[in-house]
Protein 1
Amino acid sequence: MSDSPLLKDRRPAATAASSTASPCADAHPADSSGVSSPPLDSTPSSQQGAHAGRRRFLQSAVAGAALTSAPLAARAQQAAPVTAEAVPAPAVFSPPAVGARPVQLTVNGRRYDLQLEPRVTLLDALRDYAGLIGSKKGCDRGQCGACTVLVNGRRINSCLTLAVMHEGDAITTVEGLGSQSAPSTMQRSFIEYDAFQCGFCTPGQLCSATAALTEFRNGDASAVSADPRTRPASLTDVEIRERMSGNICRCGAYQNIVGAIRSTARAARLPTDPTEQAVVPGFAKRAPSKT
Ligand code: FES
Ligand code: FES
């Protein structure tokens, strides 16, 4: 019966050292011709004994680790299904799919028969279904005012409302304020006062400014009115700025926008502050270039 590695290792170090076999014999077994390979290590026998002791220590440590970890691994395998059962998967709510349905919108006096899913916003319905791309999508979350349109004369952010809620309403977009050949007074003033740079916010600014003058004419106060129960005596620049505060212009054309609105208010004979002058040179008022 051949010696097991453990039995071999239990031999006294001196015996193992005095054996004719090298301590590294396991690493250099006899080849098929029966001739043992010469030991590569010519270490003295006292050091060979120390190597054998170190190897026995490593072997026993590995065996001990295997014995210790085996029951733990078995226990972990048994515990896994219990944990999976104890924590049930969360129920996933999947709403039933709702298809498109016929929606009738009246925009700029014209009727549009559209097929819309209930989740479509008024802004998307105008731009993507009715083809009215004048209203712009700046933020799609009610922060910039680029999507402002008029619904029954009042300004709203069309990105924050659903199209199906506006069947029967009179919707006005920037395309409905005027035409290229006959722009509205507000549109003329914006051109005259150069009240834009890139123009992305301009459709919303025009709709908002148009409604702001109507609100002032109807007697609405604003957050800066001295007495919120009554309309202020005049439409000052502070009033204009407050009433237009929902429309952001990233180009910073605010001074010219206020000038255009003030000019339109004066043309409509609304009271404005006479001390505030239209000091902004308008594009149309500039002297033609001599070059
Ligand atoms: S896109 Fe509607 S508020 Fe900005
Ligand atoms: S003109 Fe560019 S954002 Fe207003």
Protein 2
Amino acid sequence: MKRKFFMFCVLFSLTVGLKATTWFPSKHTCPICKHENEYQEIGSYGGYIYQWESKYQYVYWPLTDSPSVYCCPDCYFSAYMWDFDSIPVNKTDTIRAYLATIKRDEKYKTYLEIPMITRLEIAENIYKMLGRDTEFWCKFYRVMGYHYDEDKNAARARETRLNSLSLARQMLSDTLYSGQEKENFFIMAAMYNFTGQKDSAMVYLGKADAKEYRNKAWKEENLKGFNDYLKGLISQYKELLKKED
Ligand SMILES: [Zn+2]
């Protein structure tokens, strides 16, 4: 009995404790059609997510994982999980009118059965109605690129990554984002790499490396941690590109 329990602990720590992220079910009411459905919420995760492969696209869990984009199986209202419950009331009529134009498939009983790409494409239109800033869209298109890639849709993956690249470039000349050049150069490098422009990727990794991330709203220790993380990631990326050559 004791041995069994010990083995259970070992297995548990190997599967859950070390590198696994977990989700748990929870009911949410759709802000548009008011139907209640089951969704998944984040249970556990750890700093290891920042070392997973998707870091080379500057996309991180939970956005790499299907449960993170909610979609009401009744009306198809879609949004990131953290926005689902906080849609401004004055936008609901516009959103409802848009959703009425979408073709729905009766066969989907839970949101996880609805393809991630379908959810993201609807969410893209929803966020256009809600209004979001350049940084949001730069990330949104990286996330779309990631999932189009998973879906083997190379053309759309390329298109959305080029969107993200151009938005990162736009942020460089926007004073709202001054101090974030290190991150934006890195994003550009990543998007260059994932659209087959390795030479430019290398140039922009160099530009990113030469900068220090600054943000007045952040504590010194967090700034240091983030700069150290990006520095490490840049050097890993350079190694990776050199190896591929
Ligand atoms: Zn709904």
